[in-house]
């Protein structure tokens, strides 16, 4: 089985990621674009994914590479492994929060000081990959009505935006709430007219474990070519 991207080595970009524009405080970011080749893992990281198929190992290694690059801005040693928790979540070093995402042809990590926010999440998706047949499982009734009222191409783009923002939201609060609700138990509403950048608000949270965090959550998205990028920030209590 081939890795998810094949052939030429990717070009790492640190400090120039479009994800940085989706945060209202400074973050350290690294991304990989284009074809990928397997990257080395620290021994403890390799042990944590032993037995996975080669494609998953390559994806995991690319994510760890981005995370290590991003953490260097905070003085984290390159040989400190980034391990996984029981639900495969990254266990960031004390004093840091972060998130990793990967989709076809793209991988990124964002890291920030824990003093900046209680939690953060990022997600990247290829636009149009959220098929109409999946919508009832992913979106609530209000979201479905909005999507079905839009022209097909615009609806596909907005469906990807909503899905990506929910993924980012789940990542941002998981270490705080431990909750992984169904996608259609969360309802999002665009704040801004459709465009290359936008904000979303949590219109409905159907899980009591998340209710306390919802008012302190900021959701943003950006369109970059065929990519949809989304961020979620859980702010500290005032």
Describe it for me?
The protein has 238 residues and is an alpha+beta fold. The chain has two domains: 11-116, Ribosomal Protein L22, Chain A, CATH 3.90.470; 122-234, 4'-phosphopantetheinyl transferase domain (Ribosomal Protein L22, Chain A, Alpha-Beta Complex). Helices cover 28% and strands 27% of the residues. The chain contains six helices and nine strands, in the order ββααβββαααββαββ. The chain has helices at 43-48, 54-71, 135-138, 141-148, 152-177, 208-211, and strands at 11-14, 28-33, 96-103, 106-113, 119-126, 186-190, 197-205, 217-224, 227-234. The strands form two sheets. The protein has a five-stranded antiparallel beta sheet with strand order 5-9-8-7-6. 37% of the residues are buried.
Map the helices and strands.
Layout (H helix, E strand, L loop, with lengths): L10 E4 L13 E6 L9 H6 L5 H18 L24 E8 L2 E8 L5 E8 L8 H4 L2 H8 L3 H26 L8 E5 L6 E9 L2 H4 L5 E8 L2 E8 L4
Antiparallel strand pairs: 1-2, 2-4, 3-4, 5-9, 6-7, 7-8, 8-9
